[in-house]
Write a structure and sequence with these properties.
Strands 1-8-7-6-5-2-3-4 form an 8-stranded parallel β-sheet. With 373 residues, the chain is of the alpha/beta class. It is 37% helix and 16% strand. Helix 3 (77-89) packs across helix 7 (153-172) and helix 8 (233-243) packs across helix 14.
């Protein structure tokens, strides 16, 4: 039987506690984890008015409130990997000195929340829990099961090892808490998991005006975000390959694919329907403009703990078609559109059917029902 204890955020973070958020291993400000920390500077203030976020000084952004910037030795890519290797091979006595800057800064704090997907998470958590000061430590675990990411084999081995240690630590240390975005993700955790906080991903702020659909205009589907093998673009391709034989698709549908990564551009361009490919890093504003222009976001993921892109679609009221995996069902459950739908995992025929059903519902109801989100 599972031993975990599921708690809410307010069960652990007291209103008058001295709380600090740490985000080690963020190396640039181009979305991803940096954007996530921005969301949490607002989210955590719902539970603790005095919380602050510590970031490395090279990430300075004067538009963010409640942030302190310092120079941290560990906040360099090569240094971060070296510290992770030390933590993988040796005891904390060798790597804990690299986190002395953090330890000095949090001397007056009682609760630490780590927001990072970096390899630095485990050694920093061990350093915090082994420090003389008594601390509550919360770690946001985005991925209970590792994805097939484009990282080195060494990094994958270290990440897997640290993940197992974090699960064990949540059982053995009463002041360490793993934070998950959805209770659905408990299915991906081992039975020996201990203290767990379930708190949903904060909804991003909208920064552009959402497109209002006009009757008889083309229906725009989209895949947005970093292109990785686990995100199921091959399944999406097969679905639209099936759909290209329908007149209604060729005449009334277009598809946007926006994000950096590797993709067979020629293959997608050979489909007999308009496919708009923006295969590069885009700015936050450009990304929001692409999202706001969609009629439906498609998340054909093969694995997923959560999806920041999915939550952005929720913020804009965009219907979502997603595969039934990880935390995606919870995203669909939060959608206010009756056009949002879950489809079975790794099944291009069901995805094809869901897209056709979406088109037919719009065709039957017109733009008025579509815009009631």
């Amino acid at each position: 039987m599972p031993k975990y204890c599921v708690l809410g955020y307010s069960d652990v973070v007291e209103k008058d506690a001295k709380v600090v958020m740490l985000a080690p291993g963020i190396f640039d400000k181009k979305g991803g984890m940096f954007a996530y920390t921005e969301l949490w500077t607002d989210e955590i203030k719902k539970y603790n008015d005095g919380a602050i976020l510590l970031l490395d000084s090279k990430l300075r952004n004067d538009t963010m409130e409640g942030v302190e910037y310092h120079h941290f030795v560990s906040e360099r890519k090569k240094m971060g990997l070296a510290i992770a290797l030390l933590a993988y091979l040796f005891s904390n006595k060798l790597y804990s000195p690299f986190f002395s800057g953090y330890l000095r800064r949090i001397e007056s704090q009682s609760t630490v929340h780590l927001l990072t997907s970096s390899l630095l998470a485990y050694p920093l958590i061990k350093t915090l829990l082994n420090s003389p000061k008594e601390l509550k430590v919360i770690y946001t675990l985005h991925d209970p099961k590792p994805h097939d990411e484009k990282i080195s084999m060494v990094a994958k081995v270290i990440k897997g090892n640290f993940l197992r240690k974090l699960f064990k630590l949540s059982t053995n240390h009463q002041e360490f808490y793993l934070h998950l975005h959805s209770a659905e993700l408990l299915k991906d955790c081992p039975s020996n998991i201990g203290n767990v906080i379930v708190h949903p991903h904060p909804l991003p702020k909208t920064i552009v005006e959402k497109k209002q659909r006009k009757k008889n205009s083309k229906i725009r589907f989209g895949f947005l975000g970093r292109i990785e093998a686990y995100k199921g673009l091959d399944i999406l391709y097969e679905a639209f390959k099936n759909l290209q034989h329908y007149d209604i698709i060729r005449e009334n549908v277009e598809l946007d694919i926006v994000g950096r990564g590797e993709i067979d551009i020629k293959k997608w361009e050979e489909l007999s329907l308009p496919v708009n490919l923006v295969i590069r890093m885009v700015s936050d504003e450009e990304f929001h403009k692409h999202m706001a222009s969609l009629d439906c976001l498609i998340l054909p993921y093969k694995k997923a703990s959560q999806s920041g892109v999915g939550y952005l679609a929720l913020a804009y009221g965009i219907p979502i078609i997603a595969t039934d995996t990880g935390g995606l069902p919870e995203i669909i459950s939060q959608s206010k559109s009756n056009l949002s739908k879950l489809v079975p995992l790794n099944n291009e025929k069901e995805l094809t059917r869901a897209i056709l059903e979406f088109i037919n519902k719009i065709d039957e109801s017109g733009s008025e029902a579509f815009n009631q989100r």
